[in-house]
Amino acid sequence: MMSATYILGGAQTDFSRNWTKEGKTFMSMLREVVDDGLAEVGLDYDEIIRLNKENRVAVFVGNFDAEQYANQGHLGAFLTEVHPAFYGVPGARYEAACASGSVALDSANAKIRAGDYDVAIVVGVEVMKSVSSMVGGDFLGTAAYYEKEAKGVSLPFPKLFGQLADRVIERYGSKIGDKRILDGLGEISRINYGNAKKNPNAQTRTWFMNREQATTRGGKYNAEVGGRLAISDCSQVTDGAALLVLASPSYASEFSKKTGRTMKTFAQLKGWGHRVAPVLFEKKMAESKDNEYILPWTRQAVVDAYKRAGLDIDKIDVIETHDCFTSSEYASISAYGMTKPGEEHTVIEDGTISMDGITDADSVKRLKRKPVNPSGGLIGAGHPVGASGVRMALDLYKQVTDQAGGYQVPGAKNGLMLNIGGSATTNYTFVIGAEN
Predict the structure, then answer these.
(1) To 5 degrees, how large is the angle CA 156–CA 161–CA 164?
(2) CB-neighbour burial class of residue 324 (10 A; exposed 0-12, middle 13-18, buried 19+)
(3) How many other CB atoms are found less than 10 A from the CB of residue 80?
(4) What is the Cα–Cα distance from 319 to 370, expressed in whole angstroms?
(5) For position 323, what pLDDT does the model report?
């Protein structure tokens, strides 16, 4: 394993808030998450000024579409509007659709590893409730091939990921039954809503969802929105921001001595993967026709992260996955190596991916539990597009440093995250773990 970047901590906003209704803008969100995140870490503005004089600190902002949602671009420069301490600090905005937070995190990690900076402040931010769901759905269509997949299409992404569900069923339905796969999608939804109830920042922590509602698609209580997918299968339109502070090993040691925080309160970014598949969904499916994985580049991004971390699925204790729709989480299960392709339903049914397991008398044997999305994931916690990757990494930091509170996975030492952009076009993975 290569020398790892340290994560000193961070913060996120409450994803249940509607900032437009509060009369606040993306700047209000930036100010709040930066103030809260730096205070949580123990990094004050005077230290940023000191580091900047020595050219040791930089800012990385992940955002997908502020130009349309907030009528503003150039977000990488806007931390100067948060506090004068950021005057002169290098900053830029990074975009990769729903993986925008991860490309910011990846870029920050690369700069730390290259020795260009000792501290990187990574912020993911998205305001989405400034427009109607139909208008926002059209904005999100630019994460696909807009002219060919989204223009004139109502809610294009539920339809694209509905097609992913269709492909899973086409491959495996004859062997295990269509209903078994659809019920697995419903159970993913139930689990993520249930986990969100334990997360004080989750968007749906007060919402209701049970297995019956999640598996009963159609009608006024769970309308179908994308082929076989219904409302219960979809992540939420969310306003939110998240922040992480990354550091070189030398600065982490220096910071530990200065603040009195032990190194055990820091996490390590141990491995990463980044692969890009064809933009068009149909080209992805054509490419994977003869591959055992429906999403082969998602699988390869996972393999790359494992290789760099020197770990495999057996050493992973917790996973934060990109459940923009239940079909994306379902397809990712085999990509992690939890099962072979076509057997994803087994770890859903036997409780392996659940925080609580299942209590059925039939569930006598179970693999070592590997909870997926203890935070609630995108379905439960919320999906502010440009912030999701940073939020996932923050939650893994909390897990492996035993700071996740009510949704803590006991004994978690290493976590894996998958953040995707478009219809699994951009694939980012990170392994985050406790200090070795």
Answers:
(1) 140
(2) buried
(3) 15
(4) 7
(5) 98
